[in-house]
Amino acid sequence: MNGFISDQSLILVILLLTVAMFLWGRWRHDMVAVGSLLACVLTGLLPATEAFAGFGHPAVISVACVLVLSRGLQLSGAVDALARHALPKNAGAMASMGALIGLGAVLSGFMNNVGAMALLMPVAIQLSKRLDMAPGQVLMPLAFGTILGGMTTLIGTPPNLIVAGFRAEAGLGSFGMFDFTPIGLAVAVAGVVFVVLLGWRLVPVRKQSGMEGFETGAYLTEARVKPGSKAEGQTLRELDRALDAAGAQVVGLVRNEVRVFAPNPGRRVREGDILVIEADAESLAEVLSSFGLKLEEAMRPPPAEEASADADAETETAAGNGPGPEGSAAIEAADAAAAETAAPKTARAAASRAAQAAVVASADPHGAAAADGDGEADGDADDKPADKPGASAEVVLMELAVLPGSLLDGRSASDIRLRTVYGLNLLALSRQGQRSMRRLRAMAIRPGDLLLMQGSPEAIAEFAADHGCVPLAARALRIPSPRKAWTAGAIMVCAVAAAALGLLPAAVSFALGVLASMALRTVPLRAVYEAIDWPVIVLLAALIPVAGAMETTGAADLIARFFLDNVAQGNAVIGLSLILVVTMFLSDLMNNAATAAVMCPIALGTAAALGASPDAFLMAVAIGASCAFLTPIGHQNNTLILGPGGFRFGDYWRLGLPLEALVAAVSIPMLLLIWPL
b/e for 126-151, b at 16 or more Cβ within 10 A? Predict the structure, then answer.
């Protein structure tokens, strides 16, 4: 008995020290979690053989897999489509956040709330950019909204299923699908309204971890109007109004190879027109996907065809049909420079062309790209192998800054034969607000320009080294792919459905989704592990065994019974309130499913001792176990936003504490009304 009591004391001391270290914030949260885990091992509370069992826990696997699936939705453009259809485009902060959080709460009632959070987390980050808010100011309200929505149905969250199981074992029958709805819906509505109207203002403003970013100015890029494009038939004035929401504008028009600078706003856009658009790098994806446009450079013929066309042009020039002597001299000089550059690079150029050919190989002779049946030429290259072993088939977008003294100074993409020599596309160019009357591939490049390049990572890196450019920090730049968006969305829906319907455990279902994403390349292979926030994974994996020790030593049971024996003192309403509050407290420190499992027997025993209906007490456990708003470890959705929101351990209580108070204030009267004692 002394050893048992000693174990309880030790785990409580370790837990208090862990929370104190989290709140102090001197060391990173994953370091503190590992320290807590090792302290439990060294004091004998955990067997050494089970110390790292948390890394195989379903919750840890689920969080890691959800982060990867979420990245697939982002990179494919599925999130852009969802945001366009589900959220008001020009609404203010309250209306936009209300729509987002409300959608999250509704989805959470009928799917795993972790899956709902994963689906909407990228949308929340995009919304924060539009509203000029810190990502965490949208992510935390969304996380709390999805947690609230989960308590409205039997399948919304694991604690509800556990509570229903305990009721069945007690011989009272299981709760039905919508037995949780009257109380859960009242609590969810009250909580969402509070968060939307006031709560988001309580969230600390933090920089997004690892996503500080940088400003690069506006790019000039050329986009072709495809058949069936939303832009077709609109006047330039109407198109400019629509583009203004994305921070873009039309500054020129190319029709029949003639460029019109500052065209008449009343001119109507036709199929095949090339729009010269000014937009920042982050807006390009939204502009292209919203209006069904294709980047002109990505639709041009493969490098081999272009090289043939160049040769034909040279023949015409030699025959006297080309430009004058100065033009011929310039072409000859450019050809000599290109040949000199290309001479030692035969093997690399072949590999680069193979990678680029994967993007444009299925383009029709007229340049109407059809790489995947949708006119996509955006990065499906990683669905196809390169022609040579060792050649990278992955196509990426990267920004390059042109350094002073660069060999590119005064030369254009055509002059250096960017596509034929390197297999690269120049998609856009940014130059401190200056514009040019020339086509993009004919624009003379200057030091200080920013180039948005498309091609294999190896080719871009070698081009940058050869020509005096420096790659900027990595950006999540991507050109939307409708095919991949549908694929990524279908993978997520299937994974969530399999988990929600009980066909597979959540961890297995999400892991299968990740495997499918890798096989179908909705997430580039090199981005799979980059998508996982490893400090968060270590935090969760280290603390799960600590929470288990809290349960096995009886510390959780000791805490609950102390409050009931010393505070309730025979009053059923006070006992019910204590069950709710203690369950909330434990859920903030333990896994919510473990909390429900610990508290259900205590709730049933308390109800029997007080001569009250057990249903109200079991419902109190369900509500309390689902309302973990004070820490990042109380619920997986809280853990998911820790890194992207740039949060610290002590940031959650500022919104979480008033929200938990509101939940208690709403749920206790509703419990007494719906489930009388």
Answer: bbbebeebbbbbbbbbbbbbbbbbbb
